[in-house]
Amino acid sequence: MAKRIPLKKKYEYMTRGLAWDTTYQDMDDVYPYDKFEGIKIHNWDDWVDPFRLTQDAYWKFQAEKERKLYAVIDSYAQNNGQLGLSDARYLGALKLFLTGVSPLEYQAHRHFAHLGRNIRGTGAQVSAQMQSIDELRHAQTQIHAISHYNKFFDGLHDFTHMHDRVWYLSVPKSFFDDAVSAGPFEFFTAISFSFEYVLTNLLFVPFMSGAAYNGDLATVTFGFSAQSDESRHMTLGLEVIKFLLEQDEENVPIVQHWIDKWFWRGHRLLSLVGMMMDYMLPKKVMSWKDAWEMYFEEQGGALFDDLGRYGIRPPMHADVATKEKDRISHEVWAIFYQYTHAAGFHTWDIDDEHKAWLSESYPDTFDKYYRPRLDLWQQMAADGNRYYNMALPQLCQTCQIPMGFTEPDDPTTICFRSSEYKGDRYHFCSDGCQYIFDHEPEKYIQAWLPVHQIFQGNCGGAEIPDVLNWYHLNLDADNMAYEGSPEEALWNEWMASRRVGAAQA
């Protein structure tokens, strides 16, 4: 009887054993993309394959996870799991996730598939292809899990259309458009390292923990199902960086710039998560400040200490991001509170219990800088004059967030920076965004800025109802204040029925 092939040897046969060098076409013509960034690769065989799964093993492994995931999702739907949520306001976090994050998973799937074809080195090809399949699965399971809520709640009905058009969704969209239009090694650094390894815990842990705390079993189940995939992706991210740094010392400054750039782009993107954590979860997991200290300052600090032996330092502007941990969630909530009439989810006035939690979580800043503003808005709403800002804001040319962030050392002053290029002036929310623009201005002068497009008449019309119709948002249902919304009325009706049923029992 023939001996069973060892798993390691089988993996080598099914991956690297299938590779070949071209003969009648030059390899540089077949794989042109991995040369133009200036990265030097001397030996592709030095790549350590972090996944080490053959296709047959992968499908068996994922099929078992799918079976368990959809059993939970089906059970949740059949038992009206939405009634077990902490509060209907929690759905705002899911709307942000579905419209802002799930389309990025699909973009990641497409581009990793592209890299699997267009980068030489069998190990890199296999890693990219396997992650491509993972990302497609994540997009599908997220859509399936969250689709349950579309039966009952507003704002979830056309997320793919909204992702390409709604003003605040240009922030995650521009982040990924920037990454996929870069070279292959910058994309690996941006997504696999800077986001997946350095920053992913700041995205997925708050969202999935928030789901668990707030009774959303469907969402937390797909989070657990994706966790083993994310572990592999983080391993790939670290392997990519070490591989590039070990191949040639001239790669070091190129990789350092990418780390600087994508750390800051990721930090600005995650400001939406900070707002969600501190303001949108009825039952809190932890504050953004606590999450930043745990997942970046402690874990990220240890990572960059390790990478120091390659000549890599912590990201530029990391000190500014750390200073912002006390302020960023409050500043972003203020933006969305003012412009919720043009958003796909509700905002609300913060009650005294919530303010007490914010005061305890942010003892150095909340009471001094942010409580007075929330108190004023709450009083205005009580007087029948709920505050909506009807002016269009100035946007940062790089991150595309409205100018609502403050100076690193002065929370009372809005931060403005500007650069001139070819006779035009461009505006930025921070030194980090200005640095990114100045390094490659030709890329960012092409940015599709929602406010500019509205002024130019490219978003359905000149009036807010015209723009909302172009967004596919339903006025007074998908947006505006939560107080008095159809969602609040439906939720209150459900809770009243449950109280009557409990009393009768």
Mean pLDDT: 93
Mind summarizing the main beta sheet? 2 strands, antiparallel
Individual helix count: 22
- Secondary structural class: mainly alpha
User: What is the third-level CATH name, the topology?
Assistant: Ribonucleotide Reductase, subunit A
**Integer tally of domains:** 1
Oligomer: single chain
Q: How widely separated are the two ends?
A: 68 Å
Question: What's the gist of this structure?
Answer:
Helices cover 61% and strands 3% of the residues.
Descriptive keywords:
Ribonucleotide Reductase, subunit A; two-stranded antiparallel sheet; globular; 4 strands; single chain; 505 residues; mainly alpha
Descriptive overview:
By secondary structure, this protein is mainly alpha-helical. The chain has one domain (7-504): Orthogonal Bundle (Ribonucleotide Reductase, subunit A), CATH 1.10.620.20. Helices cover 61% and strands 3% of the residues. The protein is built from 22 helices and 4 strands. The strands form 2 sheets. A two-stranded antiparallel ribbon has the order 1-2. Strands 3-4 form a two-stranded antiparallel ribbon. α9 runs antiparallel to α13. The mean pLDDT is 93.
